[in-house]
Amino acid sequence: MVQWAGGRPVFLAGDSCGAGLSVGLAICCRNEGLRPPTGLILFSPWLDVTMTNPGIPALTKLGPMLAPAGFVAAGQDWAGGRSVTDPLVSPLRDTLEKLPPITIHQGGHDILLPDAEKFAAKARAAGTHVDLRVWPTAIHVFAGAGRTPEARQALRDAADRIRRSARD
């Protein structure tokens, strides 16, 4: 699965469902005793496909491009034969112990913010290092809008995190 590439660190990164998939892969590495990635860099991560966090409805007015019901349906499809509460589908449901350091870039106007905050708190309580950066007025997957100042800064921060790791 995840291996060192020419002696260099390996990071897993993604946005939205790809970020959740990155966490799921790190969980698999931990569970199977494989070498973990050096770190995770998550942009607007989708961490619980059940979308049951009570903080979500208040944010739907701020991020109108996303509807919780659509996420629930997509989450059921994503789960396939697994339960939607399986930690490989909804990483927030994992213990979050013994995971590599995690950096999260999250929009403050994103309906996934409440789960990102809950995930960060739970991971920290489990002993996992988490750096949660909330961009107050940013929307879902704001880092993909590369021309905005927030996106450029989030991507620079991610690149700096990787460079620091390569020097360590």
TrEMBL record:
One Pfam family from the record: Abhydrolase_3
Keywords per UniProt: Hydrolase
InterPro entries assigned to the protein according to its UniProt record, in alphabetical order: AB_hydrolase_3, AB_hydrolase_fold, GDXG_lipolytic_enzyme
Domain Alpha/beta hydrolase fold-3, first and last residues per copy: 8-143
The keyword Hydrolase belongs to this UniProt entry's keyword annotation: yes
First and last residue of the signal peptide: none
GO molecular function, one term: hydrolase activity
PANTHER family the record matches: AB HYDROLASE SUPERFAMILY PROTEIN C4A8.06C, ALPHA_BETA HYDROLASE FOLD-3 DOMAIN-CONTAINING PROTEIN-RELATED
Protein name per Swiss-Prot or TrEMBL: Alpha/beta hydrolase fold-3 domain-containing protein
Organism: Streptomyces griseofuscus
